[in-house]
Amino acid sequence: MRRLLGAGGAVLLGAAVIALVGVGFSAQAYSSPRGVQKATSLGTDMTCGKALPHVTLSFATYADASGTNDVGQQVHPGGNPSWPSYGPTNIFQAPAHACVTMHITQYDSGGSLNNPVFAKVQGTIGDTESVVSSGNSVSGCDGTSPLTYDGTPISAIQPCDAGHTFSLRGLPGIAPGFFVNVPLPLAGNAAGDNVGDLNSDAHQTVTFSFIAGPKGTYAWNCEYPCGLSVAGFGAVMGAYGYMSGYLHVV
Amino acid sequence: MSSNHNHGIHHATYQSIDEEVAPGLHKQLHRQHVRGTLYVWALLTVGGILAGLYLTPILMPHMNSPEGRAAIETVKVFTVAAAPVAALVCAVAIYSLINSRHRSHLDSPPVDGPPLRGNALASGSWLVVSTLLVVFLLFWGLTEWASQQVVHADALQVNVTGQQWLWTYSYPAQTVILPGGKTLTVPKAVDATTLDLPINVPVQFNVTSKDVTHGFWPTQLGIQGDANPGVNDVLRTTPDHLGKFQVRCSQICGLYHAYMYTQASVIPDSAFTAWIAQGDAGRVLTSAKITGGVR
Amino acid sequence: MTTTQERRLEDTVLGSAAGRFYRHQNFGTGLLGGVGLGFLLWLLGEYTVNNNPNYGTDMVVTLTMLGWVIGFNLGVGTFNAVLHWILGHDQTKEDELYAAGVGQGKSRYWKYCTDHKVVGTQYLILVFVLFFIGGTLAMMIRTQLLTPNSSFLSPQTYNAIVSIHGMTMIIATIIMVSGPFANFIMPIMIGAKDMAFPRLNAMSIWVIVSAVPPLMATFFVGGVNAGWTTYAPLSVQDGPAMVCFAFTIITFVVSVTVAGINTLITVLTMRAPGMTFSRMPVFVWASVIGGALGLYAMPAFLLDMTMMVSDHATGTSFFVSAQGGSGWLWENVFWIMGHPEVYVILIPPVGALMEVFSTFSRKPMFAYKMIIGAMIGIAGLSIMVWAHHMFTTGWAPDLAGPFMLTTELISIPTGIIFLCAIGTMWRGSNWVRLPMYFGFLFIWNFIVGGVTGIYLSDVPADDYFHGNMFVTAHFHYTLLGGAMIAATAGLCYWFPKVTGRMLDEKTGRAAFWLIAIGFQVTYLAQFYEGFKGMPRRVANYDPIFAPENVVSSIGAYVLMAGWIVLLYALVSSWRSGSIAPANPWSAKSLEWQTLTPVPLENFLEDVTVVNDAYGYGERAELQVHAVFGSTSDAHHGEGH
Ligand SMILES: [Cu+2]
Ligand SMILES: [Cu+2]
After folding, report:
1. How does pLDDT run across C140-165, given as a tens digit for each residue?
2. How much is the average pLDDT of B48-72?
3. Taking the CA of residue C268 as centre, how many other CA atoms within 13 Å lie in the half-sphere pointing to its CB?
């Protein structure tokens, strides 16, 4: 071993260290540092059409990843201020085959989807979602002013009224046909202040339920082009953890 | 013994083995070499041909279209065609290794071999055989390829859209006249996130992308084409076996490239008609329900 | 060893202008210069262009990378002579000798040094470093793929690693033979005193060294998402890491171009008397053909990457179809570089391996002229096959037939290489030393790589295999199992000449078996993944592929262990192996006829070549490759 301690060895170790530091940095910076949100149990009920254990998850989308919401949670620690982000985490956990109800609060503005298919609600119970608006003063693209929803189940939004989407895909070999797509309509008010205060900031709260698949790590992402560059899928959309994450089904 | 231990820097002189060995013995040795190599060659060739014929179908999945089976056939035929040549190279290498072992003393070089600087017959026949093989490969490939270029008068149109990171399919409203005179009708355009195809109906995929380049690869149909933004890439096939498989993205397309796949099924045309009749309402998960009993 | 006369020379060289700045330049001042100028230009960027919402970051990164590359090379002394000339000074004799490393001991390996043997050694170390980085990244890829739904790495990190593993290995394999051996060995082989352009030679290594940090920097600015092929428009959509990546390539191409010209001119003009083209060792031919092919191929890469930087930093749209550009443009120019580049990688190691086969079979090169013709044929055909990478892209479907033809035609000259290899072994007195072990491994690997290549050349089969793990396994069989194993044979062969020490064969053989077996396990499993339909470059996969991925990962760990054992053998032998005689293999080519360590300017006497270097088993007069010192047409120099 003594022989290894030569200049050559030193250079090589240096190279390995450089590579590992780079990889280590990127592994740290591009994974989610924010922990896992476990679903809250609501007992067993008929929400999903049959008697199933019912759990719920609540999270939100924010316009500023570096911000802090009204309950003091950081949206995305170390996040880029000019990027939107899901928060306070992007990794969720729910039991297998349970009925999962999600409440997503959309604080961000929006526009048109690249593909109108994602304006349709898919894979949820009844293929619907329900949206409740609060403080929104922005008009819809068809002239509805302001764009508000009253909580009636809807099966689609206007493709040009999208803020983000929550699109959860299946797992090959485990849940190949599984697919949930939920469009989140845009929100905004004159103040343009979207840091995430439930009391004062404009938001749309989207609620939907679906039956979780078998055990596995399911990936979700946003299909609204909220990034820069080609097709709006550069920058934040290519950076893991802002508009993308996992649902661990256990 | 000739001296091979002259490590003189400037004037290495070696004596040829040929000067020592009587010409008759030399010939006999040569024949021995040829025979030994031929045995190894024959063994390896047979092994290679058997592997090509019987291993290929085991290694590759069951295919649902003629194009897919053409890929399997090509691997089979090319393996069989290449086996004798590959076996010859291996045979000479292996034989030279076995035959030379006992003469190898690690510290000093063995006596020089015969100074063979070429052999017109060997080189010539090698060239002729490898050229013929290439001509055969090309002929095989072009024939197969040409047979896949047949355009059916009428085909089920399926528009395939790749985008980061999902495939979507749309079946425009259409009536397809099938080869037997039957018709298949899509009364109203349907969007779907799974791919369902009726059996024995020619299909035309019109593949494009919303953003970057993706690779549309319905694996067990044996066809593949990139989804390029702003381009319509046309792919044709006729699925002729029932079954399920996956469409996978074969061109790295960013963050979730690995997740870009869809479940695909080849289903009886009655099931297809029933499914398509539901219009958009039937688009989600329904394919799984309908094809549950297939295969 | 050092004579009084030499010591006096050293004194004048080291003494004159001793205090001048350029006498203190080395790798360290290079780092300082690069970081310094990089930082300055970063500041400039931050305060001028950074406010552009679309291109600001990319413009700043462009400036920073430009600063790094120029600063590093200024700092290390790459442009010293040029700057002197611009300022109206000429280089003195002492300056030249100083630059050649006279009297600087081991420290000259850390400097801009014009001695081709020093440059060759620097390349060798750089190649080790790059393979070590690339190998480490490969291990992370295989670890991620151990399980189907692994969260060992995030998909972003995984893509970044896949891209940089690819490019690091491509750079390393391009220079693994043309760097160390075409620099160290090739000039000695033709009886030259140095390369034709020693300054360009020294420049080529330091420029390439400056290309490495930008590649590693990609990890810190988001990572490259697009694989080493960086297909547009995905690579345009990518973040500023793509700018760093492009700078690596641009810088690398400058180096490869300069080195290629140098190799070419050296062989054309610096051969010893009597070294006719038909007496040139196959390795020299291979270096020339590889270098010339590089001169054709690599500028296309520079062009592609320059357009890429422009798309990123200035908002041009060469590759964005929504704004009139085309991803196919990128793909075409990329593969116009990319396919010849495969042979830029392959031809020099194959040439080296042919030397090994001849020396250890104790036989002349079989069908010498055919193998030269075959290498030229491969080079010529390789510039006409690029679109076989694009069979499934939808581009020019009518050209599928012609490109199938040219691609399959390449198997004819490739077959000739096999013919020459086995012809050279045929009835030879096989001396099974370590280089020969790797030679046999090459033959097996390259057969597998070649045969699987013909499946891919066939359009109907390619429609299944394209973009899947079969392709990954295929090109690892040709580039790692073929080229890199051949280069390893060359390394073990020339190790005594380069380092002056014998390589520890016992450890070397242990490494060989780990490498040979680990390699087969890794990539045969990947062929199976491809047969079954697993796509390439995926961070996760269907659990149906799980068993073969576990096997492949285990094979990869064994393979890496093998390389580390080999590295240990190399490093420990280099430090304390037994002293190598000048000609341990009793080989005939010129590098073995001079002293070890090789003196400055390579030969103590004049060289006259009288036969080719392959006179094994021939009549006595044909066995002599070259005569030294006084000959009828050489001047009467000092005897020995
Ligand atoms: Cu979004
Ligand atoms: Cu894709």
Report:
1. 999 999 998 887 888 999 999 999 99
2. 93
3. 11
Domain check: are A18 and A62 in the same one? no
Q: Are residues A102 and A10 in the same domain?
A: no
Do C471 and C414 touch, CB atoms closer than 8 A? no
Q: Select the residue from B169, B263, B275 to test the A interface by mutation, using most A Cβ atoms within 10 A.
A: B263
Strands in A175-185's sheet, in edge-to-edge order, are A36-38, A91-94, A244-249, A216-221, A162-171, A175-185
Residue range C166-182, pLDDT digits in tens = 999 999 999 999 999 99
How do residues C576-598 score in pLDDT, each as one tens digit? 899 999 999 999 999 999 998 89
Q: Which of A158-162, B146-150, C250-254, C542-546 has the lowest mean pLDDT?
A: B146-150
Q: Which ligand is nearest to the CA of B252?
A: 2
> Measured between beta carbons, which residues in chain B are less than 8 angstroms from residue A179?
193, 284-285
Same domain, A108 and A132: yes
* Chain B nearest CA to C85, separation (Å): 42
DSSP 8-class letter at C635: -
pLDDT in tens, A169-215: 888 888 888 899 999 998 887 555 556 776 678 889 999 999 999 99
Nearest by CB: A31 against C128, C154, C238: C154
**A25/A76 same-domain check:** no
Residue A66: give the domain boundaries: 36-249
Residues 372-431 of C with CB under 8 A from A: none
Q: Is the domain of A5 the same as that of A69? A: no
Complex confidence, ipTM: 0.90
Distance CA A139, CA A37 (A): 33
Per the CB < 8 A criterion, the answer to whether B33 and C427 are in contact is yes
Asked if C540 and B109 come within 8 Å (Cβ–Cβ), the reply is no
Question: Is residue B237 within 8 angstroms of chain A, CB to CB?
Answer: no
Using CB atoms, pick whichever of B223, B224, B255 lies closest to residue C156: B255
Same domain, A19 and A93: no
Same domain, A130 and A19: no
Residues 6+ apart with CB under 8 A from C184: C116, C117, C119, C120, C121, C124, C494, C497, C498
pLDDT band of C443, cuts 50, 70, 90: very high
* Partners of residue B161 in chain A, C-beta under 8 Å: 115
Alpha-carbon separation of residue A144 from A139, A147, B206, C216 (angstroms): 6, 6, 36, 51
Q: Which of A30, A48, A113, A115 to mutate to test the interface with B (most CBs of B within 10 A)?
A: A115
B111 or C449: which leads in pLDDT = C449
Is the Cβ of C156 closer than 8 Å to some Cβ of chain A?
yes
Q: Where in chain C is the domain with CATH 1.20.210.10?
A: 113-576
Reported confidence tier of residue A12, pLDDT bands at 50, 70, 90 = low
- Tell me the domains of chain B and their CATH numbers: 2-100+120-147 (no CATH), 156-291 (2.60.40.420)
From 3.40.640.10, 1.10.3210.10, 2.40.50.140, 1.20.210.10, which CATH number describes the C113-576 domain?
Answer: 1.20.210.10
CB proximity list for B260: less than 8 A, separation 6 or greater: B162, B164, B165, B166, B167, B214, B248, B249, B253
Whether A230 sits inside 8 A of B283 (CB atoms) is: no
Whether A24 and A83 map to the same domain: the answer is: no
Q: Dump pLDDT digits (tens) for C59-108.
A: 999 999 999 999 999 999 898 888 888 888 887 888 888 888 887 878 88
The mean predicted confidence, pLDDT, of chain B is: 82
Q: Are C478 and C349 in contact (CB under 8 A)?
A: no
> Cβ contact (<8 Å) for C617 and B14?
yes
- Which residues of chain B make contact with C356, given a CB cutoff of 8 A? none
The domain tally of chain A equals 2
